[in-house]
């Protein structure tokens, strides 16, 4: 990613013209392009600071960003961090069982702690980014007992290493699948990951038990995308109820919230938040971004037009408005990346143009940023 410096970012110019978008929404026009044309300097407010009355606001980061490229920018705008990739099993334990490389993850965790930030742990069990040794021996699947042993050792070692520094773990990521014909699932819509195939559906319970034992003080989350999907929501609610019935610790649900300018509806996410809240557990927005393509898989957008940026800004404002209204339930909001140039959507599901975050490629605030700041201000004026 491109280097960013705080001096370049602390002061940017912002055209004073606004575009009225109906329903009384006023949007600063083309904030990213205006650095060259505007005459009035406007200080960029710190994003997380604007949300202090409600919840911490964070970002997924890389070790390079915190140590070299964007340390000041990250310190200014975020007060909670998650490692975008380097805390996943495929990177922490790449080579063999019991051989860890914590150095890159430690860079992020230590940076966060040194700067008074909270740090999330992501993730312990997922069907992707697992090391190749984890599930096999001599080219064949290991037995249920062997895999449970490996899972217990991995979770215990990793959670213990970060104990007291990481306040929450995504223990299991993306275990359920609804409406994806190419994914293999069982009769309960559980993804046929290697964990599910070799251990069985109870791998989730074991994962949470191992994590709870390793750090009883950490909050334990189940994390997934499309949590507003009715089928997935039901599966999550059923899982939580079952865990509670059996006395298995689960503290929260992570809504990844990889969204687009058209999907999902605010109402559907609000419904999911309300249903999960009834079970008395916490919730975090763990991977927020809002793609300019209406369908997250599409590559139809080739540039960030003012029109699309305006649509995106309205959506960001609506989502943050929802999160503030649900501030008793939502205990953190984390962006999946610090700026557009660092977004995973630039290379997934293929190389393409996307600009799903609130800061552009140069880390300058986009219309979405100003709208989100306005939402925070509006709520603080009405003392919500
Ligand atoms: C999922 C994972 C994240 C990240 C994103 C996009 O949502 O939970 O860790 O890999 O996909 O890359």
Q: Any overview of this molecule?
A:
- The structure is a single chain.
- The protein has helices at 6-10, 47-50, 63-69, 71-77, 89-92, 103-114, 144-161, 194-199, 203-214, 230-246, 266-277, 306-325, 367-381, and strands at 11-13, 18-20, 26-28, 41-43, 57-61, 80-83, 118-125, 136-137, 140-141, 168-173, 219-224, 252-255, 258-260, 282-291, 330-335.
- The strands form four sheets. Strands 5-6-7-10-11-12-14-15 form an eight-stranded parallel beta barrel, surrounded by six helices. A two-stranded antiparallel sheet has the order 1-4. Strands 2-3 form a two-stranded antiparallel ribbon.
- It is of the alpha/beta class and 384 residues long.
- Mean pLDDT is 90; it is low at 1-40.
- Helices cover 36% and strands 18% of the residues.
- Residues 122, 173, 225, 256, 287, 344, 348 line the site of alpha-D-galactopyranose.
Give a short synopsis of this structure.
This protein is of the alpha/beta class.
What descriptive keywords fit this protein?
alpha/beta; 8-stranded parallel barrel; two-stranded antiparallel sheet; 15 strands; globular; disordered N terminus
Q: Over the alpha carbons, how many angstroms does the gyration radius reach? A: 21 Å
Order of helices and strands: HEEEEHEHHEHHEEEHEHHEHEEHEHEH
| Helix/strand/pairing category | alpha/beta
- Report the β-strand fraction as a percent range: 15-25%
- Number of helical stretches of at least 4 residues: 13
Shape: globular
Bound molecules: alpha-D-galactopyranose
Helix percentage range: 25-40%
Oligomer: single chain
Largest sheet: 8 strands, parallel, barrel
Distance between the first and last residues' Cα: 38 Å
Could you give the order of strands across the largest sheet? 5-6-7-10-11-12-14-15
Number of strands: 15
Average the pLDDT over all residues and give the rounded result: 90
> Runs with pLDDT <50, length 5+?
1-40
């Amino acid at each position: 990613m491109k280097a960013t410096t705080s001096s370049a970012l602390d002061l940017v110019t912002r055209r004073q013209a606004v575009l009225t978008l109906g329903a009384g929404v006023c949007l600063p026009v083309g904030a990213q392009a205006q650095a060259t044309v505007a005459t009035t300097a406007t200080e960029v407010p710190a994003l997380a600071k604007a949300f202090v009355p409600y919840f911490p606001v964070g970002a997924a980061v890389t070790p390079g960003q915190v140590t070299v490229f964007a340390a000041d920018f990250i310190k200014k705008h975020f007060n909670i961090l998650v490692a975008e990739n380097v805390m996943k099993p495929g990177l922490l334990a790449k080579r063999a069982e019991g051989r860890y490389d914590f150095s890159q993850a430690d860079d992020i965790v230590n940076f966060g702690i040194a700067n008074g930030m909270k740090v999330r742990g992501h993730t312990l069990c997922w069907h992707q980014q697992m090391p190749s040794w984890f599930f096999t021996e001599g080219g064949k699947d290991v037995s249920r007992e062997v895999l449970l042993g490996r899972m217990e050792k991995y979770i215990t070692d990793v959670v213990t290493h970060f104990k007291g520094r990481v306040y929450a773990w995504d223990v299991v990521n993306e275990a359920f699948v609804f409406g994806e014909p190419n994914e293999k699932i069982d009769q309960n819509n559980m993804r046929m990951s290697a964990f599910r195939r070799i251990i069985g559906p109870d791998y989730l319970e074991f994962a949470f038990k191992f994590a709870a034992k390793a750090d009883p003080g950490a909050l334990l989350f189940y994390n997934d995308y499309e949590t507003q999907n009715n089928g997935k929501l039901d599966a999550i609610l059923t899982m939580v109820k079952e865990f509670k019935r059996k006395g298995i610790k689960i503290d929260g649900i992570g809504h990844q919230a990889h969204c687009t300018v058209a999907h999902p509806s605010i109402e559907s996410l609000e419904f999911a938040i309300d249903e999960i809240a009834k079970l008395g557990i916490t919730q975090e927005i763990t991977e927020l971004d809002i793609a300019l393509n209406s369908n997250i898989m599409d590559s139809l957008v080739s540039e960030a037009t003012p029109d699309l940026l305006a649509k995106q800004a309205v959506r960001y404002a609506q989502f943050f408005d929802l999160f503030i209204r649900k501030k008793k339930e939502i205990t953190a909001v984390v962006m999946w990346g610090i700026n557009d140039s660092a977004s995973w959507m630039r290379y997934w599901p293929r190389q393409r143009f996307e600009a799903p975050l609130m800061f552009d490629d140069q880390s300058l605030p986009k219309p979405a940023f100003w709208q989100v700041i306005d939402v925070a201000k509006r709520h603080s004026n009405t003392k919500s």
